[in-house]
Structure formats: structure tokens, C-alpha cells
Amino acid sequence: MKKIIGLTALLLAGAPSMAQDEGSTRALLLEDCRIRAAEGFPGIKARCGTLIRPEDPSNPDSPTISLRVAVVSALSLEPEPDAFVPIAGGPGQSTVEFYASVANAFEDVRRTRDIVLMDQRGTGESAPMTCDVDEDILEGKYSREQTISVTETCLAELPHDPRFFTTSVAVQDLEALREALGYTQFNIYGISYGSRVAQHYLRQYPDSTRTVVIDGVAAPQIALGPGIAIEAQNALDAIFDRCAESEACNERFPKIREEFGALRQALAAEPATIIMPHPVTGHIEEVRFSDQEMAGALRLLSYHPSSVALMPLLIDEAVNGNFQPLAAQFMMVAESMSDAINIGMHNAVVCTEDAPWFGDSEITIDELDATYIGPLQLDSLDAMCSVWPKGVIDDDFKSPVASDVPVLLLSGEADPITPPAYADLAAVDLGNAMHLTGKMQGHGMAPRGCTPGIIGDFVETASIETLDANCLDRLFAMPFFLDFSGPSP
Q1: 365 in a structural domain
Q2: Which of residues 298, 322, 340 is at a domain's end?
């Protein structure tokens, strides 16, 4: 069975000299290696090692865990003493794999700085917290009793105590890594859930933080969960609005919003059964396609402006009885997400840092019922967290970070899960921050258009004062596909 989908990718060799400082008792030895986005992808030269940490940092006698570390060396022969540290999202995604999938986004930074990577505890090859559970649980297709039973089985299978796999513990690992490698400071980049880690590292270790870039921002004040369906609906409405404003799209799909509503009701009443080849394996499979599968497909497609361009066409095909293109898109993206997320770490974070605050949300059941996702996903998270042990969380964790360290906040205007308003909340007590929003962009700005250059300039200067972001006005959003031959002119 598959893991649950979370809330949720030519270089020079040689380690930085400080990593080989034999005079330091905390020196971390690194060896030549290659890192990849996934099996079969091209490798990137790096230097890899293992950081040994106590499972419970407050107890030196607790069992130890091994954390995977990789350093991609700067292009400069004399790199700056402060490294650049990406942190992946999920929660539950491997940072090493994430970086390898978007490495070009950080090449401007790498001109003068090493890229330091560590799979957060519980993810990738760092004491992975995995168990075999069906992704249908998170989509709300099991009863509460079934969800709780499978969650309890998952807990029993975990190799480590999940209480110590939260953000408050993970930032201690990051600081231990900085000390072990000998860098003076870190420049932190966090995407999605990783933005939460970046903010808390800044809060806990301000003197160790030179700059922060947070992308697709999860504000500390927000409990991720109740708002997922609402923000996904807002993003879908914006896509329909954009289609209506496009002469070509509106002419081709004049009633797409109404047709989608009717399709959703029809699939809720009677799911379709599709016999089709799996888009990855090619094996013929029987696929049940209900309103929930369609919701999962559309939510994942709405993350990226290129896949957004397909959505009206895919919906129209389904309206006319051809469910296979939409089902295939869902199966491909869902499998990729499923393979990337470690459920034990995902739940350790969500059940400690989000679920206890679900009840504080002002979102009503009626509002959730009015969305195309509905309340089932939130109900599933609530059921899982009802039996999941609460982990370590610092007292000030849910407060916005107050700091004068330079912070660059990045948002996509059409982000379906962390909208620009979340970044505004995160910035409320940041005294040296700039918030940039990409027009018609989705979740994750770092690889988009000129954003890599903006990040590079920001990290190089550690200043928002001279940052030129006018190039964002020219960001490309692919026109809508009118048929499968390609996008409209």
C-alpha cells in the first residue's frame, strides 16, 4: 500500500574547508557522493556525511539517530563563510531530493556559497518514519473508526518515538549541523512547510541566521488544515474567472463553472469506473473515479501554472464522459507525492503543531461543505491526530517571529494552499522584510522566471533596500489548452 499524500521537487566536488577542521571535536567528515531527485534522475556531485543526533536532544542518554547530510560546493574557490540551506516542505519531504529537483533555482546563490542540505529527521534517509497506510484515509474515504485503527497500526510500526520529530526538535538539528560544519551563519530558504522550519530557526537562533527566504509561506499563527478546502476553492474560482476573462478559453468552455458543479454532483451520486493503463507503469487497471478523486486531481493540478492551463480542458473532457485524462493526471501526481512523503514525520508535525488549534478556526462546516473538497480531509486529519501522541513544541511556536534579520517572503498569487495573505501574517513583526507576489503563479516561486536571480541578489547583499523585483511583472503563465494539441495563442 502507498504512503499518505501530505499537505500537502556539472557541479564542483570538494567539501568546504571548515567541514574538514580536524581541530574541532564536532567536525563532520564528508565524502564524495551524488544526490538525485529520485531513482533514475541525473546525479549532482556533492560531499555527503552523517550527523549523529540524540533522538531526544534533552536527554543525552536517549537512543541516537542518523541524519543524512550533503554539501554542494560553491563555484568560488573561496566561498563565503555563511552557507545557503534549503528546507523542503510536506511536511515529510526529503530536502536532498527537493534540492536536486530544483537545483537550477539556486545556482546564482551557489556562485559564492556552499549549499548545505540535510534531510530533516523522519524524512528521506534521516531516520525515516514510514509505515504502510492507504492514501484513501487522508482523503476521507474511511470511517473515523477505520482511520483510527489504521493509524494505531501505523504508530506501532514506527521505528522511533514520534514525539521527537517535530519542528522544535528539527531546528536544534540544524544548529548542530552548522556547528559541526563550522559555518559562521546560515542563509535559510524554506518552501511551504519548510518556511515554518525557517521561521522557527530564526526565532531560536537569530545570531546564527544571516538571511531568510520563505516561499509559499506557512504563517505560525495559522493551523494548516481547516483552510485547505477554502483556499483550494478560492484557487479554482480564480482559474474559472481567468478562463472567463480569456476570449479563447471562454469561447471554448463558456459554461465550465456550471458544468463542473453538475459533474461533481453526478460523481458524488454515482462514481465512474474506468479501465485504463496506469500512466506510469502501463499496467491496465480498474479505477474508481468519484467526486473525491476528481477533487484530489484538481487540487494537485492547481499548484503549478503549467498544469492549471490543462484544467478547463480536463474538466470538459470529463463532462463529456472521458474521465481518463483527468484520472491519469491524478494518478501521476498522487504517486509522486505519495512516494515523497513520510507519514510518521508528517503526522508528528501536524498532530502537534496544527491539530490542537483546529477548533480555533472560524471556518464553519457550511463553508467547507460549499467547497469542492468538502470537510472529509479535515475530518480524517482530526481522526488520525486523536490517537497520535503530541510531540515537543516550544512555548512561543505559534507566535509570529519578531526579528530585524533580512527576510524575503515569496508568494504565488494563485497559490491553492498558502496564499499571499499567509505571508502578510508571517511578516507582521518582521522589521526588515519584503514580500513579493508572482502574478498568476502557484505554490513555490523559487524556480519561476527571474526569481532565482532575485534570491541570489538578496542572499549576496543581505539587503532588501536595493532589491530589484520589477522582472516579476513579466512572469509567464501558460495560456489555457483548448485541445490536446497545445495551449491557445
Answers
A1: no
A2: 340
Cα Rg for the chain, rounded, in angstroms?
22
Residue 403, beta-bridge partner list: 430
Range of the structural domain that residue 299 is part of: 253-340
Residues 134 and 186 in one domain: yes
Whether residue 212 is contained in a domain is answered as yes
pLDDT tens-digit profile of 392-435? 999 999 999 999 999 999 999 999 999 999 999 999 999 999 99
Helices 256-269 and 291-301 cross at an angle (nearest 10°) of 140
Let me know whether 264 and 200 are in one domain.
Answer: no
Cell 499496467 belongs to: 283
Q: Clarify whether residues 31 and 119 are in a common domain.
A: yes
CA-based diameter of the chain, in Å?
71
Given 324, 340, 356, the domain boundary residue is 340
Nearest to 424 by CA among 440, 448, 400: 400
CATH number of the domain to which 145 belongs: 3.40.50.1820
Is 183 buried (19+), middle (13-18) or exposed (0-12) by CB count in 10 A? buried
pTM of the model: 0.92
Strand pairing class (407-412; 433-438): parallel
- Given a cut of 90, whether residue 7 has pLDDT beyond it is no
Total structural domains in the chain? 2
Per-residue pLDDT at 337:
64
pLDDT value at position 19? 42
Buried/exposed 459-473: b ≥16 CB within 10 Å, e otherwise: bbeeebeeeebeebe
For residue 131, being part of any structural domain is answered with yes
Q: How large is the average pLDDT for residues 111-125?
A: 98
- Whether residue 277 is contained in a domain is answered as yes
* Backbone phi and psi for residue 16, each to the nearest 5 degrees, phi listed first: -65, 150
* Digit-coded pLDDT (tens) for 246-297: 999 999 999 999 999 999 999 999 999 999 998 888 899 898 899 988 998 8
Q: Comparing C-alpha atoms, which of 318, 316, 323, 313 is closest to residue 286?
A: 323
> Using an 8 Å Cβ cutoff, are 464 and 454 in contact?
no
